[in-house]
Amino acid sequence: MKNIINQLDSYMREALCLFDLPGLAVSAEVGENGPRALAGLNYKGAAGVKDITTKEPLKPEHVFHMASVSKLFTSAGILALCEEGKLSLEDRLRDVLPYVDIADDRVAEIQVRHMLTHTSGMADVEDYHWDTPRTDEAALKDYATSREVRESRMLWSPSEGRFRYSNMAYELLGLMIAERSGMSYEAYMKKKFLEPLGMEASTFLTFERTGGSLALDDLSQAGLAMPHTKDSEKRIVKEVHYPYNREHGPSSTLTSNLSDLARWAKVHLDRALFPKERYNEIWTSYATVPNNGEGMGLGWFLRRQESYEIYGHEGTDDGFRASFWICPQLDAHVTVVSNISRGAVKKISKKIFEMLIHSV
């Protein structure tokens, strides 16, 4: 066990330099049901800095913007409402949100299942407006009825089953959660998942960490890693804005840390959130992702690494990259986060899984 921990620690520090990242945080855990050589592994490490301007060291407990990893929670919210009988995967967008319209007759065909699996044919978000964020509860519904949504054009009919990643679809799924639960999207996420799982460092309302401010200095004081990018000369610089806008909560705004995401991983590895039959449905491939051949389940991406099935999600927004994957066969999960746009976190995650697999 000590050997794999040393390997992970060494690789994390190597990757920080190899991929030119300001900061990198890694979690790799294997449960008691994993292979004997790895069972009980609990590694959490961090290297680099939280903020390039202050050089404050990054720590495993620091909070990161998780970007599209948020979609795993939105998917879970939809499925929880299905279990409660308040929603069905066959329900149509127009029936659940009758006030939402898209300038294409094929919108009438879109079902909840299509939206979860990115096969709806819907367009993507054009601009997140991180520079002019809204924090009021009406923001999500206003986006859903905005000109951007109304005038968007569908690429194809949902019946074609073709993959097209759509953040817009996930914003509308979040609004469905609000409509059918009778509370805001963020309140439902908190009540249904974050509080019961003890995810105390997590929230979809970033501004609540500071009493309402989204200023970088205030967020830094609250324990959040700062967002970075690279300038025209490839130098690492701090982003001007933190990536938050309540219009895009369901697709993008979870902030969390390694320990909390380990809780999220464990509840799925234990198949404790939904009945076993539902998990079989969640981790079935309904479409193929063209650029990498991964499968698309109900909110989860599905890939194969050597002889192992691995399920998870990537996330990227201005200033951050996140990679979250679980492997039920190994009873293992790996989370990799970095505080810079386009950081190579998926490559790092794959390497870590390779290390675990070859340690079996």
Automatic annotation (TrEMBL):
InterPro entries in UniProt: AmpC-like, Beta-lactam-related, Beta-lactam/transpept-like
SUPFAM superfamilies: beta-lactamase/transpeptidase-like
Xref: Pfam families: Beta-lactamase
Beta-lactamase-related domain ranges (all copies): 43-346
Coiled-coil segments: none
PANTHER family named in the record: BETA-LACTAMASE-RELATED DOMAIN-CONTAINING PROTEIN, D-ALANYL-D-ALANINE-CARBOXYPEPTIDASE/ENDOPEPTIDASE AMPH
Name this protein carries in UniProt: Beta-lactamase family protein
